[in-house]
Amino acid sequence: MADALDSAETAILVANAEDVAAAEKNALSSASIDRLRLDPKRLSAVADAVRHVAGLPDPVGAIISQWIRPNGIEITKVRTPIGVIGIIYESRPNVTADATSLCIKTGNAVILRGGSESLRSNIAIAAALAQGVRAVGLPEDCIQLVPVADREIVTLMAAMDDCIDVIIPRGGHALIETVVRHARMPVIKHYNGICTVYIHADADIAMAARIVENAKCQRPGVCNAMETLLLHRDIAEAFWKAALPSLAKHNVKIHADPANAKLLSAADYANVTPATDADWTTEYLDYEMAVREVGSLDEAIAHINKYSSHHSDAIVTADAATAERFLAEVDSATVYWNASTRFTDGGEFGFGAEIGISTDKLHARGPMALEELTTYKYTIRGTGQVRV
After folding, report:
1. Residues 93, 111: contact at Cβ < 8 Å?
2. Which of 93, 262, 272, 340 is deepest in the core (most CB within 10 A)?
3. How far apart are CA 338 and CA 202, in angstroms?
4. Nearest residue to 200 (alpha-carbon basis) of 327, 333, 334
5. Tally of CB atoms within 10 A around 67
6. Contact (CB, 8 A) for 217 and 287
7. Tens of pLDDT along 248-292?
8. What is the pTM of this model?
9. Domains of the chain and any CATH numbers
């Protein structure tokens, strides 16, 4: 599959250029176009991610646990494929390859429905992947991509519980709500990425400034980018002095509460607007963020558990006890101490490509990779035992 992607580079990049041109004509946001765009380097990285998945241990058939009952029956809990996985996603054409490689590695078939803005790219990538599996004797129909952009396809797939065993939506709020409302099979949701970084009173200010710049500006249009910053009131002034030069380079728009608005005004930072309650639940996906003053760890944890999407949240502090309490009490899929939220990614976790970041609590949570695309069954071996 990876070799087929390399061989089809020209066709894929031509298709992607047509998608990008259409997106620019339709005035999509710069962040959306960035998620859509492929170039030789990005496409090579997509193929390399497929190769990485190929080299990972195969979870199918792995024994989770095993025991023998007093009557001599041996019980084994073993990983198995789920079956047919439906994946509905938006914008990013690399998802076509990532999702497919993970599904094929785990013995699952996959039905893909990408966004209309990346339709040409997805068709070209899926055709290459199908050629790859056909070349090694697998049925090419184990990879299927819906080749039309009709929105009715989403509700039709969600109703196909006789054909699809689990459905995974990746995209905006409206898409996920539609799938959840209509699905007759289990849904694993990749919900909003309203990620928060909390700068504690005992934080290393230089470290905090570096982490915030990375979490917000390194790639703002992705789900693990920081959207909300919580600042302890005792270090807010020092933090802004350290952080504003790098944020100003990107002209980051800041939705600030009154306390931080006053500090930003004193620092002559112009791109500031008053924060409203809506800002605490907004996924900007751009050079834009909300900031709020807090007076304690309790206040920070309460804010995150109330307003975040339970995706990725971080604390910056030099105090280990404070950090461990934050890690234990923040109810999110991934929780960080002194590191950027941008690490919430299957590749960064060592999983290879990812199928998505689940914000559910069952059956998967956080970056979903090979193990999360399996289920399990019990195999029981006896020597003639009967129940009495």
Report:
1. no
2. 93
3. 12
4. 327
5. 9
6. yes
7. 999 999 999 999 999 999 999 999 999 999 999 999 999 999 999
8. 0.82
9. 2-189+360-379 (3.40.605.10), 195-343 (3.40.309.10)
